[in-house]
Amino acid sequence: MQFWEQHKLAYPIFFLTYVSSSTIDYVKSFLEWMSDSIAKSFEHTRDNAFLLRHVKLLINKSDLESVPDGPKVVLASMGSLEAGFSHDIFVEWVSDTKNLILFSERGQFGTLARMLQADPPPKAVKVTMSKRVPLVGEELAAYEEEQNRIKKEEALKASLIKEEESKASLRTELPVNDQMVLDANNTHSSSNAIGQRSEAFRDVLIDGFLPPSTSVAPMFPFYDCSSEWDDFGEVINPDDYVTKDVNIDQMLMPVDGELAGKLDEGSVSLILDTTPSKVVSTELTVQVKCSLIYMDFEGRSDGRSIKSILAHVAPLKLVLVHGSAEATEHLKQHCLQHVCPHVYAPQIEETIDVTSDLCAYKVQLSEKLMSNVLFKKLGEYEIAWIDAEVGKTENGMLSLLPLSSPAPPHKTVLVGDIKMADFKQFLASKGVQVEFAGGALRCGEYVTLRKVGDASQKGGSAAIQQIILEGPLTEEYYKIREYLYSQFYAP
């Protein structure tokens, strides 16, 4: 857009996709993920980088066809040229030598875009044109007959299920000694059976009404629709609280005269279109005479960036996938020399084993040993130095046991890490005047604290850093050194 403004170009730009407006509205809310210049521009001038003044959003190809003839730029989906608006425009425009196709990403294998990138035009290519047409005549009648048959089967199935559920509920709810329950063992459904009923039963069954053979209760029964309860209260059916009908009109919001929100007009028309239809496909041969350019805008890291990232990550083992043979071999040789000694570049469907033998053993800490261990809290954890010897338990498992002889002396090990900013706040809370100067921490008038060494090493080894305390041997020096030692645990 800056290029259009700087050169004062009047050629229109169209963004043609079913979700054009909703896509732009969505990315407008992600300014905090953009570069610092874009964020600062919005803070000072309220200028949103995605307020595309020179781009017109389209969601229908008919809107593009109504544009007057002349030079124009159309950003259309899909990038593979296999379907979508780009497929239709490709068929119409490729025969003109004045047109240009600009690919912003490498096409996937087997797609029309990848074929054109591998073998540029001029050439003839075959494309499949698909169109959805409504059903008519015998096809429409056969479709409606099939739909009616499916509906009848579903209705019959639902009625059978409802009848079975009703029978099951009656069997469980009605007591056995209820006078209104019919005798299931009596198979004679004649008028004599009615004469043997009580007077209360005659009030329900009148002459001429006989209970069906499948009934388990008299006609016109009364059901007590009591609710089921458990330990947590009344049992509810979650389906009763699901909103099934969604008003699509409320999901669309007019913004600047165009449709936005969750759905675009093209998407809504596809959802609401219930007309019976079919897809008719035809194969065409088109002459590709236009120009073709591929510019890498995939947003992937280039070779130099990948090498720099791998050097900082310093992996123990590296597996390279998804790349050309030449690029993969080049990166493999670079990593072998500068990153790590174990680099793999497997072929498709090749299996490799990258497991590591760390010589880890599972041991048990004996109660005698743990009773003499002194733990010290370090942040969220508790740590301790242990001198022990390896033995075996009765079941053969390795166990750490107390030493049978006095423990040998060991060098002091400082456990933990210190951040200069946190230590600065700690000293300030103790009343020490402290400030950063030249990459070091100046404490008081004469004492200086600095970190030296690399925080990361190649090959995944532990970082080696030194903390240097400089200054005259005064009371202030020893005081700050004591504060520094308090930040570590020295077992």
From TrEMBL:
Its main location: nucleus. The keyword Nucleus applies. It is found in: Nucleus. One of its GO terms (biological process) is mRNA 3'-end processing by stem-loop binding and cleavage. Residues 1-116 form the Beta-Casp domain. Coiled coil: none annotated. Keywords: mRNA processing, Nucleus, RNA-binding. SMART domains: Beta-Casp (SM01027). InterPro entries: Beta_Casp (IPR022712), CPSF2 (IPR027075), Cpsf2_C (IPR025069), RibonucZ/Hydroxyglut_hydro (IPR036866), RMMBL (IPR011108). GO terms for molecular function: RNA binding. The keyword Iron does not apply. GO terms for cellular component: mRNA cleavage and polyadenylation specificity factor complex. Signal peptide: none annotated. Belongs to the metallo-beta-lactamase superfamily. RNA-metabolizing metallo-beta-lactamase-like family. CPSF2/YSH1 subfamily. PANTHER family: CLEAVAGE AND POLYADENYLATION SPECIFICITY FACTOR SUBUNIT 2. This is Cleavage and polyadenylation specificity factor subunit 2. It comes from Coffea canephora (Robusta coffee). The lineage of its organism: Eukaryota, Viridiplantae, Streptophyta, Embryophyta, Tracheophyta.
